[in-house]
Design brief:
heterodimer, A: alpha/beta, Rossmann fold, five-stranded parallel β-sheet, 5 strands, B: alpha/beta, TIM Barrel, four-stranded parallel β-sheet, 22 helices
């Protein structure tokens, strides 16, 4: 079965270039991709991920609110008994990486991450959590 | 002393004033800035070069620049966009700028303010005061401009969906401090069309949003003679992934739409066009960008004069601000972004920009640190004061390559205009709105972004530090700015206090009037908004009252 990915924009950040490009690249790699649209809350993302029965959730954040919002998405999923892994892409300072991993973010993709890197990392995470 | 090259003086005089004669007459009227206008090795330079029967700066269609003397009279304005934290923090920065001789303020608002939300809204979590200053009520605007004479400074406010609300707050604060609205000078970004197309900070659906834009255009035309009503912005369209030609065409088409909107409100094209300014991206493809700016001026002049019947020269002249391309910056080896930004800034200057913002090297990692922002400003100062490129207007004009690329940009834009015109059945205003409603702009931008990304991934294009030349990528000791959530807590407490101190009945009455007037499209909403701000209604409350009537826009998620 194909890997299913929910890509989501949480909070007020309207930058959607990256998420749309990555969604298409994941499709090109044979994954099934669902996009939530803009201005989601951690709760709406968690509910959508569970309903859509996805293998991984991909967040895109470029406004600087990732330290507040990304862990809340992980929390909203776990609260609902879901172990779906969460990955993050966007503008993330290197010094935030360790803390994000501790808070349950499975991988972080910075600007310039290649399609190959994103696809192989997501495939690896899905294989591990299956 | 005026120096005109021999090439220029060779032209045969004709009975009617030629472009060259007219240019010379305009140029002589200009007061030049001090300087020798020669090369480093003392070779004297003419203000412009070219054949006597060619195009000249300051002369229709302005391909070579909007001013006859270009940067010999005045260098471009180095306008660095900034804003952070709570109002008192940004006020301190403003006062510093003024003390240092600055005459213009540029305000960045935080995301909740840009989306018309209060700082205590649950959706504002983690965003308050982060990308700009947090504004909830007139109390914050009072703090923002405390000790600043708004009658003697120009204020640029980068805000779109709540632009009418912010204008109302600004007018209310000015009048409370004894400055009449007619004395206020400045610019609202107020370009809602590109929000749906690219930047995605929208609140209401497109049509009621355009009514608010109409109200601000009509209000400022009638009561604020020194105010620029819209900064028509291609920057965000390009950052969202469009090509250069799409940035050019979508932006100018949006400009045409605002002219038509003003015409519907009873204003002539000559009443509105001089109050529109433009804002373009400076991306890394050096010559393509220069050609884009040249084509933009020529297209705007032709359309204003020939299509919309503008008779004032000010209406034909496209003036623009430039910002270097955030998307061109890399997180890898961030210091090399200084070189990228310098090349992009140079394109803006050689393209004849009126003002320029240079990005900081660390913006692919975080909000800019003070040091990184200073280096970005220094980059402009090197271009302005060391390179001598500001001595000659349109120095690349006449290059076969640049002229052909300019013509090609113009041709591509005209093709796009005809598609938009067709969507609107002869109306650019309708074409732009329908194009948004039918996801046409958004789809084209996403397609172009994807095509570009594929060319990077296939190795067809090189990005230094990303696809090639990786040595040095492990060196990640650049100090970036850290922002805490402390401001968020402070701002929420402040808003709570304002809510306790104000007269709730008066607020409710003002909001009720706003709902009532919003439901009648013939009413201008500015007076009701100004009164509501004076009652200390918050930005979130005013925007919610309007949403009760206008509804909220939900973009259909498409990939």
């Amino acid at each position: 079965m194909n890997t299913r990915v929910l890509v989501a924009k949480v909070g007020l950040d309207g930058h959607d270039r990256g998420i749309k490009v990555v969604a298409r690249l994941l499709r090109d790699a044979g994954m099934e991709v669902v996009y939530t649209g803009l201005f989601q809350t951690p709760e709406t993302v968690a509910v959508a991920a569970i309903q859509e029965d996805v293998d991984v959730v991909g967040l895109s954040m470029l406004s600087g609110a990732h330290m507040t919002l990304a862990p809340l998405v992980v929390h909203a999923l776990r609260e609902r008994g879901s172990e779906i892994p969460v990955v993050l892409g966007g503008i993330v300072p290197p010094q935030d990486l360790d803390e994000l991993h501790e808070l349950g973010i499975a991988a972080v993709f910075g600007p310039g991450a290649s399609a190959e890197e994103i696809v192989s990392t997501i495939s690896g995470i899905v294989a591990l959590s299956a | 002393m005026l120096k005109v090259s021999k090439v220029l003086e060779r032209g045969d005089d004709v009975a009617a004033e030629s472009a060259q004669e007219r240019w010379r007459r305009l140029f002589r009227k200009e007061t030049l800035r001090p300087g020798s206008f020669a090369t480093m090795s003392s070779i004297p330079l003419a203000p412009v070069y070219g054949p006597s029967d060619g195009e000249f700066p300051g002369i229709y269609p302005y391909t070579r620049g909007v001013h006859a003397s270009m940067y010999r009279t005045k260098l471009w304005t180095m306008r660095m966009f900034a804003g952070f934290g709570i109002a008192t923090d940004t006020n301190a920065r403003f006062r510093e700028i003024i003390r240092a001789g600055g005459t213009g303020l540029s305000t960045a608002f935080d995301m909740p303010t840009l989306l018309g939300l209060d700082s205590d809204d649950p959706m504002s979590l983690g965003e308050v005061g982060r990308c700009g200053v947090a504004i909830d009520t007139l109390a914050d605007v009072r703090d923002l401009f405390a000790g600043i004479d708004l009658g003697n400074i120009t204020t640029s406010m980068t805000i779109n969906s709540p632009a009418a609300v912010m204008l109302a707050l600004f007018v209310a604060q000015a009048e409370a401090s004894g400055v009449a609205r007619a004395r206020l000078g400045g610019t609202l970004q107020n370009d809602i069309l590109k929000e749906y197309q690219a930047q995605k900070e929208f609140v209401f659906p497109p049509r009621p949003s355009m009514r608010l834009v109409r109200d601000t255009i009509a209000f400022t035309a009638a009561e604020m003679p020194k105010w620029n009503s819209i900064s028509v912005s291609g920057y965000h369209i390009r950052e969202a992934g469009s090509t250069a030609a799409e940035e050019l065409a979508f932006t100018l088409a949006n400009g045409f739409a605002y002219v038509e909107l003003a015409r519907e409100a009873g204003l002539s094209v000559d009443a509105v066009a001089p109050r529109l300014s433009f804002f373009f991206n400076a991306h890394i493809d050096f010559f393509e960008e220069i050609a884009k700016y040249r084509a933009a001026r020529r297209l705007w002049a032709k359309w204003m004069r020939e299509h919309y019947g503008a008779t004032e020269e000010r209406s034909w002249q496209l003036r623009f601000h430039t910002q270097t391309a955030g998307v061109s910056l890399t997180a890898q080896q961030p210091e090399i972004n200084i070189a990228r930004t310098a090349i992009e800034a140079l394109a803006g200057v050689l393209g004849g920009t009126q003002s320029l913002h240079t990005n900081s090297m660390d913006e692919a990692l975080a909000l800019p640190s003070e040091k990184a922002a200073r280096i970005a400003l220094r980059t402009q100062q090197i271009i302005a004061h060391e390179t001598n490129v500001a001595n000659v207007a349109d120095p690349l004009g006449g290059s076969w390559f640049i002229e052909e690329l300019t013509d090609e940009m113009e041709r591509e834009a005209e093709v796009i205009f005809s598609v938009i015109d067709k969507m609107g059945e002869g109306s650019m205003l309708e074409g732009c709105v329908r194009g948004i409603e039918e996801n046409w702009f958004q789809g084209r931008i996403a397609d172009s972004a994807y095509e570009l990304e594929r060319s990077f991934n296939s190795g067809e294009r090189v990005i230094v530090g990303v696809s090639d030349f990786l040595e040095g990528n492990d060196d990640t000791d650049l100090a970036t700015l850290r922002i805490t959530n402390e401001d968020e807590r402070k701002q929420r407490a402040r808003l709570q206090q304002v809510r306790l101190d104000r007269n709730t009945a008066k607020v409710q009455e003002a909001l009720q009037r706003l709902r009532h007037e919003a439901s009648d499209a013939s009413v201008n909403l500015m007076p009701a908004l100004i009164d509501a701000t004076k009652a200390y209604a918050s930005v979130g409350e005013m925007m919610s009252a309007l949403a009760d009537v206008f509804g909220r826009y939900v973009e259909v998620p498409t990939l």
